């Protein structure tokens, strides 16, 4: 009977945990360890060496980390880089001014002479990957988790510093599988990047927040830059003598078309995932952590909407960009909660934990994991109060420009002339760009949510005044804190900065907002952070053991490491999906959908008369037709950071550009469900159409390898 229970449990584990062919973010330099066979069985016509090679040119030499948060790819022999419009938007905004509105009008350079340098933008090209795991010889079970972290961090810095690198190179040691493998990544950093082409925002962000995280889409989310290098083809700072960089490899663009069930893979730098969490943590994320973050972001978003819709200072591009960023993350969080609920992730992971408990009782050599499933879940329960206090502290006390300014005055160097000069500059910037009324109202709402949602043991001592001086009325207390503070008065702030240092300190000691932020700083560093770190180190150790237990119990599956912004590939098929009863989404969209959305009059679908004329006249050029997909979806596993990643066909040719995920699949950072998780790509044919017919960027098209 005991063997039967174990067998049934193992079958259950296989059913709910088997790695799907369309799940995973795989290490391209380890493809020979099984994944390449699966990819080739699905249609890939390349070998592992074609994708990633240490010794010769491969497709990895065409992939770059764009701007630190997205992916890009070389698409010409002369350093042209293709990435998303939304990845480039901040750069496009910086290059815009009153006479040159590149955001609304787009930009289409007609020759290399008109390409625009982008100060502050860089890309990283991966040169080599070195397995340095064997250098971490000091790791053992005898080390505490804190000792382990100190050892790995210090040794990683030594390895990075000792590795020979050239000027403009960057070395970084990253850990995988919960600190059981370590790799050194060496990048070349290019700092001379120039804008070549970008559609207007009406195309590049067609649908705005209404369509964000949604399918179907009709968004031309792309932009093109060029990397420049020294005359010797070496990475260099901006210089007028620089020349277009000549990469070792670039992507050819396919015009063969796309069909449902075609093999597709995505190559890029995904940000962060947490795929191996126990049921208690999934429960906290779904029922508490994400809902609380949603509430905070809604408070911030509503305040910014009031600010930008009224006639206030601060109604500028910075506020608009901040509003877009908040809306983006807020919608993602809501999608995650709904996706986890629909997938029954809590129930499924709880059943998995129960079966893992049974496995430890029955399988050979599994007794080392006895009690582990219970231990990690109970530790996450104990961790929750300090985790939420830590999470809220940054989101509330650093949640407004006003409170961030007050915290800046709480500094050990307050008496330094240089620091006071820097504070003066910060005060001036704050007063010039912030609307005080909205800063105060937002701060009040955020402080109240901290008081109401965080365990009293993590409250700053100043909160005791709520009972002692305000009869338990938190609203009255918070009103007093902000209404009576000199930080909420422009005149008082300016007068403060004109005082001698000792008078500033004396004033601050009496200021209620400063007193609160000072107390909060003491509470955070003296109580919240130590408690958080204590549990966090314990969790790290348990997660490593929990992951090892899953690997031993689930011998039928391959395990991929969580994403950590290192180069990965993911693969699957072009596929539609059915998110719920009686609803099915087709795998691609067409230009007819653009016209349909225009007709509705929704401001999210801003009509572009030039594009409309091209569509009405069916003037699509060489690479596009009325039936060619504008966007398409696949079941390829992606996350943030994959924005701008090339979507490639079986031959390794570019067929699209990854830019988003669907609403139902946003929870894939925690729990991947192949039936509904989809990544969204703009078709390469639509990009070529816009370059040719809309932007008339013929010199760009002449550089591309189009097949």
In terms of topology, how is this protein built?
Layout: H1 2-17, H2 35-42, H3 48-51, E1 63-66, E2 70-74, E3 80-83, H4 85-95, H5 102-105, E4 107-108, E5 116-117, E6 123-131, H6 145-162, E7 169-176, E8 181-190, E9 193-198, H7 201-204, H8 208-211, E10 223-229, E11 243-244, E12 263-268, H9 279-309, H10 317-342, H11 345-362, H12 372-397, H13 401-408, H14 417-433, H15 436-453, H16 465-468, H17 474-483, H18 490-497, H19 501-510, H20 512-553, E13 568-573, E14 577-580, E15 583-585, H21 591-599, H22 609-616, E16 631-634, E17 646-648, E18 654-661, E19 679-683, H23 684-694, H24 698-703
Task: Report strand %.
Answer: 5-15%
Q: In percent, how helical is the residue content?
A: 40-55%
Task: Give the integer mean of the pLDDT values.
Answer: 90
Shape: globular
Structure report:
With about 700 residues, this protein is an alpha+beta fold. About 45% of the residues lie in helices and about 15% in strands. The protein has 24 helices and 19 strands. Strands 1, 2, 3, 4, 5, 6, 7, 8, 9, 10 and 11 form an eleven-stranded antiparallel beta sheet that branches. Strands 13-12-17-18-19-16 form a six-stranded antiparallel beta sheet.
């Amino acid at each position: 009977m005991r063997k039967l229970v174990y067998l049934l449990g193992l079958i259950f584990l296989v059913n709910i945990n088997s790695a799907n062919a369309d799940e995973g973010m795989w290490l391209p330099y380890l493809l020979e360890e099984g994944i390449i066979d699966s990819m080739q069985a699905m249609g890939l016509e390349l070998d592992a060496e074609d994708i990633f090679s240490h010794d010769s040119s491969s497709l990895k030499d065409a992939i770059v980390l764009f701007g630190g948060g997205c992916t890009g790819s070389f698409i010409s022999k002369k350093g042209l880089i293709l990435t998303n419009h939304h990845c480039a938007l901040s750069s496009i905004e910086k290059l815009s001014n009153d006479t040159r509105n590149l955001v609304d009008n787009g930009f289409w350079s007609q020759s290399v002479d008109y390409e625009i340098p982008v100060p502050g933008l860089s890309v990283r090209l991966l040169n080599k990957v070195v397995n340095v795991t064997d250098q971490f010889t000091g790791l053992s079970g005898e080390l505490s988790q804190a000792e382990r972290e100190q050892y790995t961090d210090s040794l990683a810095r030594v390895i990075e510093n000792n590795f020979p690198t050239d000027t403009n190179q960057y070395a970084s040691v990253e850990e995988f599988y919960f600190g059981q493998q370590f790799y050194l990544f060496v990048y070349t950093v290019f700092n001379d990047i120039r804008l070549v082409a970008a559609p207007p925002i009406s195309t590049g962000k067609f649908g705005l927040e209404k369509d964000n995280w949604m399918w179907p889409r009709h968004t031309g989310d792309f932009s093109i830059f060029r990397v420049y290098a020294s005359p010797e083809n070496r990475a260099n700072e901006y210089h007028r003598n620089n020349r277009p960089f000549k990469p070792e490899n670039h992507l050819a663009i396919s015009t063969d078309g796309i069909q449902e069930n075609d093999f597709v893979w995505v190559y890029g730098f995904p940000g962060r995932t947490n795929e191996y969490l126990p049921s208690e943590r999934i429960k906290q994320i779904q029922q508490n952590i994400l809902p609380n973050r949603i509430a905070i972001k809604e408070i911030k978003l509503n305040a910014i909407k009031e600010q930008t819709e009224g006639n206030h200072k601060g109604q500028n591009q910075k506020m608009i960009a901040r509003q877009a960023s908040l809306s983006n993350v807020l919608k993602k969080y809501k999608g995650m909660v709904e996706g986890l609920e629909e997938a029954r992730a809590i129930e499924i992971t709880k059943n998995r934990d129960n079966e893992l408990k049974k496995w430890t009782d029955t399988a050979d050599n599994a007794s080392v994991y006895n009690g582990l499933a219970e231990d990690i879940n109970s530790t996450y329960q104990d961790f929750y109060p300090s985790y939420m206090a830590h999470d809220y502290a940054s989101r509330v006390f650093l949640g407004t420009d006003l409170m961030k300014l007050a915290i800046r005055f709480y500094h050990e160097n307050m008496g330094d002339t240089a620091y006071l000069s820097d504070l003066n500059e910060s005060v001036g910037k704050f007063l010039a760009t912030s609307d005080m009324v909205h800063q105060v109202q937002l701060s009040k709402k955020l402080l109240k949510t901290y008081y109401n949602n965080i365990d009293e043991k993590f409250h700053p001592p100043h909160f005791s005044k709520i009972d002692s001086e305000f009869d338990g009325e938190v609203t009255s207390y918070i009103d007093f804190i902000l209404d009576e503070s000199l930080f909420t008065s422009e005149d008082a702030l300016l007068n403060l900065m004109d005082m001698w240092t000792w008078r500033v300190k004396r004033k601050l000691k009496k200021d209620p907002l400063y007193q609160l932020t000072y107390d909060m700083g003491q509470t955070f560093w003296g109580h919240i952070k130590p408690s958080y770190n204590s549990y966090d180190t314990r969790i790290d150790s348990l997660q490593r053991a929990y992951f090892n237990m899953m690997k031993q119990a689930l011998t039928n599956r391959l395990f991929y490491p969580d994403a950590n912004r290192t180069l990965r590939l993911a693969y699957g098929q072009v596929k539609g999906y059915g998110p719920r009863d009686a609803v099915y989404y087709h795998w691609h969209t067409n230009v007819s959908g653009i016209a349909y959305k225009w007709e509705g009059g929704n401001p999210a679908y801003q009509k572009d008369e030039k594009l409309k004329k091209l569509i009405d006249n069916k003037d699509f050029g060489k690479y596009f037709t009325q039936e060619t997909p504008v966007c398409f979806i696949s079941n390829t596993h992606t996350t943030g950071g994959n924005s701008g990643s090339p979507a490639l066909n079986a031959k390794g040719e570019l067929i699209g550009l990854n830019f988003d995920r669907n609403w139902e699949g946003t929870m894939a950072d925690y729990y991947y469900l192949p039936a509904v998780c989809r990544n969204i790509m703009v078709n390469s044919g639509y990009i070529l159409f816009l370059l040719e017919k809309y932007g008339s960027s013929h010199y760009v098209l002449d550089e591309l390898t189009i097949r």
